[in-house]
Design brief:
This protein is of the alpha/beta class. The chain has one domain (3-278): Rossmann fold (3-Layer(aba) Sandwich). The protein has helices spanning 78-85, 109-115, 132-141, 156-168, 184-197, 214-227, 240-246, 264-268, 271-278; strands spanning 40-49, 52-62, 67-71, 93-98, 102-103, 117-120, 202-206, 233-236, 249-254, 257-263. It has a six-stranded mixed β-sheet with strand order 6-7-8-3-9-10, sandwiched between helices. The longest helix is centred in the C-terminal third of the chain and has 14 residues, at 184-197. The protein is globular. The structure holds adenosine-5'-triphosphate (ATP) and magnesium ion (MG). Magnesium ion (MG) is lined by residues 78-79, 206.
Length: 280
């Protein structure tokens, strides 16, 4: 399981912003002060592995409600950046803030997950022996802000949230199916749905369409375009067709730093980006 949906991930202090703040239609930032600035602020972050700089003075700002795509060659530091944001890797230097006031570098991995940063790894991790519906239910119930035990009856608001999520991830007609029987793409959508059930204020997705069919990739682009503006998302992907379907602002990482940043067409035509990545 991802840290974000394990029981330990939800231990600790309750933060403001409960299930009632969950309605889709506004950007979820409750408990994170974004009134004067971004949802995520990385400044001068450096990470070394045995002297090799995986991140080299990385500076990056993500606004609330933004869908930011990060691209760049293998080894550019994209996953390492997500490891720093989620507390898995400690940087040697730099600053990392979630909203105005939450210093990520002072928090443990479970605390960061609990504060509202969700993460999707490449491999889908769903409960294969449970139905699609039960997976979403379980994801919701690992959130201690929802006052219910695992086997208590769902209230109507909880039902509505699961139904809305099923529709969003286009698995309404599969709700009663064992998750283990879903296609790879459907499992990926289910896991995204499980993350959404926990109402993350920032969601990190590392190569979400890897291994998907073309049709699944296209459907995933539609899903992300639906989430854009309502959620704050960082999406790392190599599939440039997918990237072009969802791109707003694109950041190009290279050798642990930002090489270029801007709209897709600008980044695509940047000679340095073509040289290190797109031209290959
Ligand atoms: N735990 C680690 N120990 C040693 N080196 C590491 C570790 N994690 C990452 N690296 C190295 O840091 C560099 C950046 O890796 P990272 O996984 O962040 O790249 P990436 O941009 O995600 O690449 P890809 O597109 O292939 O996923 C690579 O050279 C990698 O080998
Ligand atoms: Mg990676």
């Amino acid at each position: 399981m991802n840290a974000a949906v394990t029981a330990e991930a939800v231990e600790g202090q309750n933060l403001p912003g409960g299930a009632d703040a969950a309605a889709y239609g506004h950007v979820r930032t409750a408990g994170v002060d974004t009134s004067h600035g971004p949802i995520l602020y990385l400044d001068d972050i450096s990470v070394s592995f045995d002297g090799f700089k995986a991140l080299n003075k990385l500076t990056l700002t993500i606004e609330a409600g933004e869908l930011r795509v990060i691209i760049g060659p293998n080894g550019a530091g994209k996953t390492t950046m997500m490891d720093v944001i989620t507390g898995k890797t400690r940087p040697d230097a730099g600053t990392a803030f979630f909203g105005q006031t939450i210093d990520l570098l002072r928090m443990s991995e479970p605390q960061i997950a609990h504060a509202g940063i969700g993460r999707k790894f490449q491999k889908p991790t769903v409960f294969e022996n449970h139905t699609v519906f039960e997976n979403l239910e379980l994801a919701m119930k690992t959130d201690k802000r929802v006052k219910s035990t695992l086997w208590s009856k769902l209230d109507s608001a909880a039902w509505d949230r699961i139904a809305a999520t099923l529709e969003l991830i286009r698995l309404s007609n599969q709700f009663d199916r064992l998750a283990g029987l879903l296609s790879h793409g459907q499992k990926q959508w289910l896991e995204i749905g499980m993350l959404l059930m926990q109402e993350p204020k920032l969601l990190l997705l590392d190569e979400p369409v890897a291994g998907m069919t073309d049709a699944e990739t296209e459907r995933t682009a539609e899903l992300f375009n639906t989430l854009a503006g309502k959620h704050s998302l960082i999406v790392v992907e190599h599939d440039m067709d997918f990237v072009s379907r969802i791109a707003r602002t694109v950041t190009v990482l290279h050798e642990g730093s930002v090489l270029a940043e801007g709209p897709m067409d600008v980044v695509q035509n940047d000679a340095r980006v073509i040289e290190v990545y797109l031209g290959r």
